[in-house]
Amino acid sequence: MPTLARRSFTLALMGGLAAPLLLRAHPLRAQTDAVADLRRAALDLPQLHAILVQRGDEVILAEAPRGRGLDRAANIKSCSKSLLALLLGTAIARGEVPSLSARLGDVAPDLIPADATQGVADLTMNDLVTLRGGLQGTSGGNYGAWVSSPNWVAYALRQPRIAPNGGRMIYSTGTTHVLGAALVTATGTTLRDLARERLGAPLGIDIPDWTRDPQGFHFGGNEMALTPQAMLSVALLMRDNGRYGDAQVIAPDWVTASRQVQTRSPFSGLGYGLGWFLSDTGWIIARGYGGQVIAAHPDRGLALAITSDPTQPARSEGYFGALMRLIDGPVLALA
After folding, report:
1. How far apart are alpha carbons 7 and 135 in whole angstroms?
2. Strand 225-226 and strand 243-244: pairing?
3. CA atoms within 13 A on the CB side of 151
4. How close are the terminal C-alpha atoms of the chain, in Å?
5. How confident is the model at residue 27, as a pLDDT?
6. pTM score, whole prediction
């Protein structure tokens, strides 16, 4: 992808050069107006730090009115969960994890404390990646006590059961942290090295080191950092069925499975597949606290990345709702 300047945007004009000017004027004006409308709508959002939108092979909007700009890493918060899901896909494709139905008790039995909640050994990789672990969540009001504990994995697996394994969606970073630790156990390498080898290298992006728990496991589902341009590369990967450039980075069947709704968020109502939110309008979305977004619309050939103020909430009825109106409105209007 070409280097993008801070606070600049590029419009790709379409239409045959040989066509008479009068025949081309109105379509071109409409496209120019659509990008201008998107730019105005995006810059009117005070929490927004950066936005990149690509249609086909052309980046048509690249703006960073606030924050760290387009080429400096920002904390992507829970967008990390969606990248973790891609790493699970690579482990299954390589036979390091037998399948989505593999049990935690078989993949990583040593992670399970002696006083774990009954049934956690039977949790499948599918239960973990779809946030259907059945245990009380460690996010929201429970987050501080969890990350202050001496063993994050054990703490998550001791939480009281509030639903059956594979039942309703319970948003919990503890669940994805257990998944990350299971991946480390199964592959014999760190989550950071997995991310760099299987996503960073093929996408040509840098994935800096990030937070580890007291046992040395990298945070599975939070605190990763990427530049907005790197986030856009991930969005393109999902848009293009796991391909990036000439490389098939993620198996196509994993991307297809990721787009199948398995549960729904009790907060936003969005569907949820293998670590990715799914909108009824065709978007596949990674969502992080504060309004961090990686999104792709395969049917419309669109990919986007948004970073926002990571210290402010982005509730479904608030700022995240405004972001959804942006991508369902002005962004989709570009296709």
Report:
1. 44
2. unpaired
3. 10
4. 20
5. 66
6. 0.91
Does residue 20 surpass a pLDDT of 60?
no
In single-letter form, the type of residue at position 7 comes to R
Q: Which residues of 155-177 are buried (b: 16+ CB within 10 A; e: fewer)?
A: bbbbbeeeeebbeebbbbbbbbb
pLDDT at 319 over 60: yes
pLDDT band at 8 (very low <50, low <70, confident <90, very high): very low
How much is the pLDDT for 212?
98
Give the residue from 285, 201, 305, 295 showing the smallest Cα distance to 245. 201
Tell me the torsion sign for CA atoms 55, 243, 234, 102.
Answer: positive
Q: Give the chain's domains with CATH numbers.
A: 21-74+226-334 (3.40.710.10), 79-187 (no CATH)
Task: Supply 201's token pair.
Answer: 């290298």
How far is Cα 136 from Cα 119, in angstroms, rounded to an integer? 13
- Does the pLDDT value for residue 26 go beyond 90? no
Helix (H) or strand (E) holding 296: strand 292-297
Mean pLDDT of 38-45: 96
**3-state secondary structure (DSSP) of residue 118:** coil
Neighbours of 123 (CB within 10 A): 27
**Is 2's pLDDT higher than 50?**
no
Torsion of CA 311, 316, 320, 321, to 10 degrees: -150
Which residues have a Cβ under 8 Å from the Cβ of 296 and sit 6 or more positions away? 235, 236, 238, 239, 283, 284, 302, 303, 304
- pLDDT tens readout for residues 198-211: 999 999 999 999 99
